[in-house]
Write a structure and sequence with these properties.
This protein has four helices and no strands.
Length: about 80
């Protein structure tokens, strides 16, 4: 898989600017569609709702708290 990606990157690098713009817009549309489909996934929706509920109830760690906790574990 890594080699295929490298070949793809090389192929993209050889494109004209106009074709790179076309590819950019195509990829942007594909990514937006994939993200929309993920957002409609019931499992993803449940995870989002769970995270919102935890946030609303204060059941979360700030980034600083998480880092401090990880530092204590490392000791």
């Amino acid at each position: 898989m890594k080699r295929e990606f490298e070949l793809l990157v090389e192929a993209i690098a050889s494109l004209r600017l106009e074709d790179k713009h076309k590819l950019f817009h195509l990829l942007d549309e594909e990514i937006a569609q994939a993200e929309e489909e993920l957002a409609e996934n019931p499992a993803i929706q449940a995870e989002i709702q769970e995270a919102r509920t935890e946030y609303q109830t204060g059941d979360y760690l700030t980034l600083d708290e998480y880092i401090a906790h990880q530092s204590q574990i490392a000791l």
